[in-house]
Amino acid sequence: MENNESGNSSRRKFLRNVSMGVGAITVAGVAKATIADGNEASAKSGKMVKLLSTDGKLVEVDLSDIKPSKEIEAELKSEAKKGLPNRKFAMVIDLAKCANARACVDACQEGHLLPKDHEWMKIYMLQDDNLTSKYWFPRPCFHCDKPMCVSVCPVGATYKRQDGIVLVDNQRCIGCKFCMTGCPYSARVFNWKDPEVEVPEGHVYDPETNIPAVEGTVGKCIFCADNLRKGILPRCVQACPMGVLYFGDLLEDTVTNGIETLRFSKLMTDRAGYRYKEDLGTLPSVYYLPPSNREFPVEMGLEGADESITGRYKNVGPR
Amino acid sequence: MEADKKLITDLTPEIEKTSIKWYITFFIFLAFFVVGIYGLIQQIDKGHIVTGMRDNVVWGFYIVNFIFFMGLSYSGALISGVLHLFHTGWRKPIIRMAELITVISLVIGPFFIFFCIGRLDRLHFLFMYPRIQSPITWDVIAICTDLIGCFIYLYLSFIEDFAILRDYKDLKVAPWKKKLYEILSLGYTGTEKQYKILSNAKTVMAAMIIAIAIIVYSVLAWIFGVTLQPGWHSTIFGPYFVIAAVFSGTGLLIILMWIFRKVYHLEEYITKRHFVNVGVLLTVIAAFYGYFTFSDYLTKWYGSIKMDSILIDKLFTDYYSLFIFANYVGILLPAIIIAFPKFRTIPSITVAAVIALTALWVNRYIIVIPTLETPFLPIQDVRPDWISYAPTWIEWALTLAGVSVFAMLFMLVSKIAPIISISEMQEKDKVEILK
User: Fold this and answer.
1) Does A124 lie at the interface with B, CB-CB under 8 angstroms?
2) For an engineered disulfide with A140, which of A90, A165, A221, B272 has Cβ 3.0 to 4.6 Å away?
3) Is B266 among the domain residues?
């Protein structure tokens, strides 16, 4: 490469454009890659993809020619570390509407290529007291503003970004599991064995997708940081058939579940929003609306569910 | 340096020749070690799924062993340091053992952390990307400091003995060993000046390792204390851990005294008086330790904080027998045995020590595991191994391997150095020099 300097910066610009979706170009779901030297002898996949070249021309290249580059990985990592400017993401979960449909869990596992026994989004059935009712309680990562997991991490593998999201860099994580004992919400999962993820061709690791999961490291809900960069709602929010999950930006004071868009502050006032275990002082970014005026009984969430699901809730009692 | 011939032959029974007994014992321990290594290879090959640890109980036997061995180490430092500083006359035959406990368990302890972390290949990240906010980083700094400090202290106490062995002409050992003594004794000949320097250095290091031991073990306790978890989030944990450590170390010291006395026929040097004195020390510490344990659990039990109640309930149901053994039997029985003079015999004191040491290990277990089994959000799972922890053979194998390495290192040291400090034993009139 003769002019390294300009080549780099234009490629960067090109990437930014592609990842922002400019020109509506799709590269088999993977936009972040470079084109390897054409001279290299490699088996052609025969699948052609359209790309926007550095001088603004639309070109077609063979899929097998798109190779991840170390340089880009580093840039993605530093972007993933900063987060999106002028944003403060938050989630609102309406407990009155949740009926354990588990669509959020499935969408999450599919989207992040998680093994079936890894649930970043977990659905609990809680009961506070004998005299009070049971209710379904979806629990993503709370992306706390005072995250215990970040404080205790000895190598900075898990970190808090300016937009409020807490991420894990599984290429840095040493697997000490201190964050897992630190988190009071059991939001973290460990890769006890090789997760055997089938990584899409040309995929570059980025903490914003956390794909692929790495054996011996920790994973957790990442608020679908990759979607947010593209301006798309997190997968669980999109998937929920009941519109339980609202996602939005506290600076805009707006949250949406994809169906309706609401004023966050008004929602909190009208529906008496609260945060789980406020007394721990971790300042979660996830707010709950109490399970009031429910349209269906709690037990509906167990109907037709597999034994592996219903079995979880056999001994639910006051806690 | 001249030394009494009888002292040398009595206190270095394994240096000149190696008995068949030594070989047999060593190979038994080696076999345990090999099994442990096989388990470790399995774990590295198949992942941590082969252990009993799962997403709720993320720390199991390994962390328990880590705290346990580190505790033994710090207590060794405390005991030898305190006895040295107070010029306790009867310490002389046993101080070397306490120092060896310190260093050997300090070397073994961190290996259990290595077994516990998921990415052993990234261990160096702890030094490359350290974050000072993390108690683990405090611990890394503390343990490294402690390792250096304790090695220096141990070495200082060895110099005089190496000089004695170097100058002892009748010693029938391989030439490399003679050479080793010559190098390690650093040209020490016991002149007044040398003695003064060495003596001062030992005193300074004794004081330092006491301080380091207290700090380091508190830091280890804070790894648990700073979290929000019920049962761990306790202000008492620092001092509680330190006391518990001394308790375990004192117990181990008594056990080692008994073993060495039996195996190497040291009845003349390690007498009942030593057992009684260390035993009384154990009783006093048991009182403190019991008091801390009681006050920690009382405050958790008396109030109505939900998570504390859930934890206490668990301890008194699923962990009932372990709890009673660790916190009642393990504290009261040794104290009672030693407190009444008529029970004070060498075997009974040793039994008391064995009970104390085992109970302390169990105490560690019921501090770590039940808390992890009672997270704030209830565990709702159908997989039994996700709900409660049960160690697998690999964790047992590595635990036994750790104990075996402890024994093997002790045996190896006894091949090179006196197990009771010769210089301390003959140091009668030298105190005059210091005045």
Assistant:
1) yes
2) A221
3) yes
For domain A81-312, the CATH architecture is: 2-Layer Sandwich (3.30)
Q: Would you give the distance in Å from CA B129 to the centre of its chain?
A: 30
Domain count, chain B: 1
As a whole number of angstroms, the distance between CA A284 and CA A276 comes to 8
Give the full edge-to-edge strand order of the sheet including A261-263: A261-263, A254-256, A245-249, A89-94, A286-289
Predicted-complex ipTM score: 0.89
pLDDT (tens digit per residue) in B265-302? 888 888 888 888 889 989 999 999 999 999 999 999 99
Q: Looking at chain B from residue 353 to 392, which residues have their Cβ under 8 Å from any Cβ of chain A?
A: 372, 375-383
C-beta of residue B84 within 8 angstroms of C-beta of residue B91: yes
**CATH no. for residue B367?**
1.20.1630.10
Question: Which residues on chain A are in Cβ contact (under 8 Å) with B389?
Answer: none
For A240-262, write each residue's pLDDT tens digit: 999 999 999 999 999 999 999 99
Instruction: Give the residue numbers spanning the domain of B24.
Output: 5-125+133-381+399-418
Distance of alpha carbon A33 from alpha carbon A51, whole angstroms: 11
The C-alpha atoms of residue B336 and residue B344 are separated, in whole angstroms, by 10
Interface contact B380-A124, CB threshold 8 A: yes
CB contact under 8 Å between B119 and A217, yes or no, is: yes
Residue A271 φ then ψ, to 5°: -105, 10
Residue type, position A204, single letter = V
C-alpha distances in Å from residue A199, one per residue of A36, A122, A313? 19, 24, 34
The pTM of the full predicted model, rounded to 2 decimals, is 0.86
* Nearest CA-CA distance, residue B146 and chain A, Å: 19
